[in-house]
Amino acid sequence: MRVVGLPRAFYHASRLRVVEPSPGAQERLRYLSCWQALKDQGLSSTRASQVLGLPRSTLYRWQRRLKLKGPKGLEEGSRRPHRCRQPTWGVDLPQGVLELRERYPRWGKDRLVVLLRREGWQVSVSTVGRILAHLKARGVLQEPVYHPVSASRRRLRRPYGCRKPKDYLPTIPGDLVQVDTLDLRPLPGVVLKQFTAQDVVSRWDVLEVRRRATAATAAQFLATLNSRLPFPLRAIQSLP
Fold first, then answer.
1. For residue 167, how many C-alpha atoms fall within 13 Å in the half-sphere facing its CB?
2. What digits encode the pLDDT tens for the residues 154-210?
3. How far apart are the C-alpha atoms of 49 and 28, rounded to whole Å?
4. What is the DSSP string of the chain?
5. Neighbours of 191 (CB within 10 A)
6. I need a surface site. Which of 107, 170, 231, 239 has the fewest CB within 10 A?
7. Residue extents of the structural domains in the chain
8. pTM exceeds 0.85 for this model
9. Tens digits of per-residue pLDDT, 82-121?
């Protein structure tokens, strides 16, 4: 039996992976086919591009890429510019920016440029910003840890008070006593504070007049309230 082998190029080609065009390349190919079909029907290239809603220059560019590279030329390429801007600063300026930024870690380019100009550097704000970005990309400049501070002061939770639950229903005397203050003006220029407590079930009232409404006088009134009630006090509600 005679064994005949195939050429080496056949085995090399069999290992090649067939890459399907991307959806974007297939869409561009469909646009080119429709554009050519419209031109075959007698429309000009300008009118055909207007019907498709695409600029004529874009269709010509796709057509040129298709002729040069085939369907692979219709793939989305890199948008990186051919010529990138090169740094215009030397070695000493980035070092000076780094030293100032390490000395003032919270300062940005607008403040650092003032100090640099005082030291004799003729530099713009945008250049200092690009140098800072360059130093961060290299890992030379480490940003300080940011600790946000809220403008609104957080209210501390009071362990002795809480909001009355909506389903709380007083049924017996002492389940809920409402406390409020009232201004008394018996004479011109004289202002007194009246503390009033009322049980919502029995309507038992406790009143006391003080010269001022402070934390100390409020504590004294609560002690008086607890001693003058004929039933145990279970909950107090302060009225606004």
1. 0
2. 666 766 677 788 888 899 999 999 999 989 998 888 899 999 999 999 999 999 999
3. 13
4. ----PPPHHHHHHHTSPPPPPPHHHHHHHHHHHHHHHHHHTT--HHHHHHHHTS-HHHHHHHHHHHHHHGGGGGS------SSPPPP---SHHHHHHHHHHHHSTT--HHHHHHHHHHTT----HHHHHHHHHHHHHHT-S-PPPP----SSPPPPPPTT--PPPTT----STTS-EEEEEEEE-SSTT--EEEEEEEETTT--EEEEEES---HHHHHHHHHHHHHH-SS----EEE--
5. 11
6. 239
7. 20-74, 92-138, 177-238
8. no
9. 888 788 888 889 999 999 999 998 899 999 999 999 998 8
Question: Any idea which residue has 């003729």 for tokens?
Answer: 122
Question: Token digits for 20?
Answer: 């399907």
